[in-house]
Amino acid sequence: MNKIIKSIPNTLTCISLFFGCLSILYSIEGNFLYAVACILIGSIFDFSDGFAARALKASSAIGKELDSLADQVSFGVAPGFAIYFWMKGHVDCSFCEYLPYIAFLVPAFSALRLAKFNIDERQTSSFIGLPTPANALFLSSLVSTSDILLKNGTSNWFTDFCSNPVAMIVIVIATSLLLVSEFPMFSLKFKHFGWAGNEKKFILIVFAVVAMIIFGMCGILFAAAFTTILFYMVMCIVDFFIKKRQ
């Protein structure tokens, strides 16, 4: 029984990896809605494995390594494939046929970010640089939302933006650099569920719920993902300058 309990966190990590693989498959098939859904499900299991390890006192060295490997697939390779196949099918790359390959900066910088995280003792209770799950959800939900709008016959500034090669290049490079930046960002994982110390996390959750309701009513539910990640970035910037003034 003890061995079964100890294996629960690693099982959750493997489930996250499984959904990351599914996301890659759906991106190859051009189904960006299912691709981002799998990344979202994977992120939920990624969140729960650490919490389970602490709750069950089942933390282990292999669990730490497995978590990084799973994160690289689910939140590095998977969003990279989503961006690549989006650019191949929806972005005008006629002036440079190799342009979609820029999408693979995402898994490359995600690997650097995860390796940095594993040896950086400053990131025990907070993050330095954009977390890979947040970046994966931001990128995949961006293209998924645009894909849904286009399939529904809606063409607007947002779909034009996501189909613009310069815009996609800037987004990929900017988010990749954010992954390995020295910018402080608060952790999204809970060590407990009390208000004290989790104020910013609860505010972010409330924002996410409101965004899901609003965008869900508009038929573009996953737009809530990238707007929430943007709000998260803004919160971190505001928090940084407030602490700097103190």
Concise account of the structure shown:
The chain has 246 residues and is mainly alpha-helical. The chain has helices at 2-28, 32-55, 61-90, 105-119, 132-151, 157-162, 165-179, 199-217, 223-245, and strands spanning 126-128, 184-186.
Describe the protein in words.
The termini are far apart. The model has no long low-confidence stretch (mean pLDDT 89). This protein has a two-stranded antiparallel ribbon with strand order 1-2. It is 73% helix and 2% strand. The protein has a single domain, classed as Up-down Bundle (Four Helix Bundle (Hemerythrin (Met), subunit A)), CATH 1.20.120. The chain has 246 residues and is mainly α. Helix 2 runs antiparallel to helix 5 and helix 3 runs antiparallel to helix 4. The chain contains 9 helices and 2 strands; from the N terminus they run H-H-H-H-E-H-H-H-E-H-H.
Give unreliable regions as ranges.
none
User: Strand-residue fraction?
Assistant: under 5%
What is the 3D shape? globular
Summed up, the helix count is 9
Distance between the termini: 51 Å
Q: Radius of gyration in whole Å, from Cα? A: 18 Å
Structural class, by secondary structure, is: mainly alpha
Q: What CATH architecture label applies?
A: Up-down Bundle
Total domain units: 1
